[in-house]
Design brief:
Chain B: Heterotetramer of 2 NUBP1 and 2 NUBP2 chains. The complex is a heterodimer of chains A (about 280) and B (about 325). Chain A is built from ten helices and eleven strands. Chain A is α/β, with parallel strands linked by helices and about 280 residues long. In chain A, helix 6 links the parallel strand 8 and strand 9. In chain A, helix 4 runs parallel beside helix 5. In chain A, about 55% of the residues are buried. Chain B is of the alpha/beta class. Helices cover about 40% and strands about 15% of the residues of chain B. In chain B, a hairpin with a 2-residue loop joins strand 3 and strand 4. In chain B, helix 3 crosses helix 11. The longest helix of chain B is centred in the C-terminal third of the chain and has 27 residues. Classes of the chains: A alpha/beta (about 280), B alpha/beta (about 325). Chains A and B meet through helix 4, helix 5, helix 6 and helix 8 of A and helix 5, helix 6, helix 7 and helix 9 of B.
């Protein structure tokens, strides 16, 4: 008779979570938090309960994007209660942004301290029952990423969505992130090409400010699914600034169908997996 | 370094026993650190870096705002004066973009008696990056903090830079290992200051304010802020759109509030990204672009700042 390790004997805080998704990119500022936020909103509109774990400790963006900056995290018997974004409690969020005394405080931490907090985020947040937990990460392939993947391994995450912008400088970093996924045994759900083309709101001329097609080409080259191109859309940027629900407010915008399509592919994948 | 309420910070003598440390997951870690012994490399780096006349760090709390593009073109701009030796050091260990932007991807670093030789783009412009040490474009650097710090130490101590006038350091986003290490290693030498890059929207500015707090904490002077991707003029109808809207007043308002100089605003120009992908300087590719003119103006202000700083320093000695 073998001894059950303590962490398994107790009911873990992630036990009620159906699917765990990571949003990764080697490059910063390509839209990881944007895609995480919009994906959460799109899944919520599809009737799912979604949690977001923001492990970007030095630059947490999600609280503002969901207009919950300044909210506090409460402690209960089984751990930290995440912040609920809406009244129905269908989106919950945990971020270091809620633990800072002042919003401009810098988190000047070296690796070991970041790793300890990430472990705590993964074991001690009381998510309850969730259909999806989306983990938003900082750029790179370092402490935060290694710790997150290691701590989540026992919960068998669905995989990673890799975000890139189309230009070669960004693709180069995402190629390295693909290698990271391969080395750590993390499945790649697919690649999203963000900021792909800008349609001038005045004359409808499309300009490829950050080039075009790099993400799709990389997906083909690496033999991973391509989830779609999200165009540069000032309405999307504006919504994220003000913490408004883009998916509900702008169904006619150019970015909407792309985001909805990405969410649908993830839903399809999970339904085929569970059937 | 009080990050969380009551936290004395890992470098404090109170780290571990302080009241706020009770129950903190890092209590053991912080307490075991104790007062760190002085790294002997610091003295070697001091000796090596003292002859560098000007050191400029390019920082931003946010990723993808244009730190590497700016660093590369600051280097190009300063190197136009052939009497000046310029060095560009890329300490973005996990996402080195400088080799591609400078058009020297795939180059190797050679070992000589006096250390690692950097890669030369021009006679007076040398570059060092972890990108030159990788075996291929898919090679990922999956390193935790201490290994990254070791690499930065080697870049400062073991690279044979020669005599240089300007050292420009391009950094990754954030306020973590790389940033602490570069500041600590250069602490004993004179650093002119940091140029902070941002984009106009609040989502970026909120990270940049954290970077400014970081600079204040580690007593790094701030030369000024550059607002990048500031507006886009449609090439067809010539009407300007704010793709990344400055909903809280952009960098201008932030600089006013924090009493920091705004060095300039650089508009979005698709040709900049293209030049970077091709590894060419957009100064020569698109000399007439408003972005180029804005860049040149910013570089001039940095030169003036360094010049002024240098004379002040000499006077005070």
């Amino acid at each position: 008779l073998s001894i059950v390790p303590l962490s398994f004997a107790e009911r873990s805080n992630l036990a009620g979570v159906q699917h765990i998704l990571l949003v990764l990119s080697g490059k910063g500022g390509v839209g990881k938090s944007t895609i995480s936020t919009e994906l959460a909103l799109a899944l919520q509109h599809a009737g799912k309960k979604v949690g977001i774990l923001d492990v970007d400790l030095c630059g947490p963006s999600i609280p503002r994007m969901l207009k919950v900056q300044g909210k506090g995290v409460h402690q209960c018997d089984s751990g930290w209660v995440p912040v609920f974004v809406d009244q129905d409690k269908s989106i919950s969020l945990m971020s270091i942004g809620f633990l800072l005394e002042k919003p401009d405080d810098a988190v000047v931490w070296r690796g070991p301290k970041k790793n300890a907090l990430i472990k705590q985020f993964i074991s001690d947040v009381t998510w309850g029952e969730l259909d999806f937990l989306i983990v938003d990460t900082p750029p790179g392939t370092s402490d935060e990423h290694i710790s997150t993947v290691e701590s989540l391994r026992q919960y068998m995450p669905l995989g990673a969505v890799l975000v890139t912008t189309p230009q070669a400088v960004s693709i180069g970093d995402v190629r390295r992130e693909l290698t990271f996924c391969k080395k750590t045994g993390l499945r790649v759900i697919g690649i999203v090409e963000n900021m792909s083309g800008f349609v001038c709101p005045h004359c409808l001329e499309c300009t490829n400010i950050f080039s075009k097609g790099g993400g799709e080409e990389l997906a083909r080259h690496a033999r991973v699914p391509f989830l779609g191109c999200v165009p540069l859309d000032p309405q999307l940027a504006q919504c994220l600034e003000e913490g408004r629900d883009f998916i509900r407010e702008f169904p006619k915008s150019s970015a909407f169908p792309a985001l909805a399509h990405i969410a649908q592919q993830i839903l399809d994948r999970t339904s085929s997996q569970s059937s | 370094m009080a990050e969380l309420p009551g936290c004395p910070g890992p470098s404090s003598a109170q780290a571990g026993p302080a009241a706020a440390c009770q129950g903190c997951p890092n209590q053991g870690l912080c307490a075991s650190g104790g007062p760190a012994a002085l790294d002997p490399a610091v003295a070697e780096i001091k000796e090596k870096m003292e002859i560098v006349k000007h050191k400029i760090l390019v920082l931003s709390g946010k990723g993808g705002v244009g730190k590497s593009t700016f660093s590369a073109h600051l280097a190009h701009g300063l190197a136009e004066d052939e009497t000046k030796q310029v060095a560009l050091l890329d300490i973005d260990i996990c996402g080195p973009s400088i080799p591609k932007i400078m058009g020297i991807e795939g180059e190797q670093v050679h070992q000589s008696g006096s250390g690692w030789s950097p890669v030369y783009v021009e006679d007076n412009l040398s570059v060092m990056s972890v990108g030159f040490l990788l075996s291929g474009p898919d090679d990922a650097v999956i390193w935790r903090g201490p290994k990254k710090n070791g690499m930065i130490k080697q870049f400062l101590r073991d690279v044979d830079w020669g005599e240089i006038d300007y050292l420009i350091v391009d950094t990754p986003p954030g306020t973590s290992d790389e940033h602490l290490s570069i500041v600590q290693y250069l602490n004993s030498t004179h650093v002119d200051g940091a140029v902070i890059i941002t984009t106009p929207q609040e989502v970026s500015l909120q990270d940049v304010r954290k970077e400014i707090s970081f600079c204040h904490k580690v007593k790094l002077p701030i030369i000024g802020v550059v607002e990048n991707m500031s507006g886009f003029v449609c090439p067809k109808c010539k009407i300007e759109t704010q793709i990344f809207p400055p909903t809280t007043g952009g960098a201008e308002k932030m600089c006013q509030n924090l009493n920091i100089s705004l060095l300039g605003k650089v508009p979005l120009d698709p040709r900049i990204g293209k030049s970077c992908d091709q590894g060419q300087s957009f100064f020569s590719e698109i000399p007439e672009s408003p972005a180029t003119l804005s860049y040149r103006h910013i570089i001039q202000r940095i030169q003036e700042y360094c010049g002024l700083h240098h004379t002040e320093e000499k006077l005070s000695n």
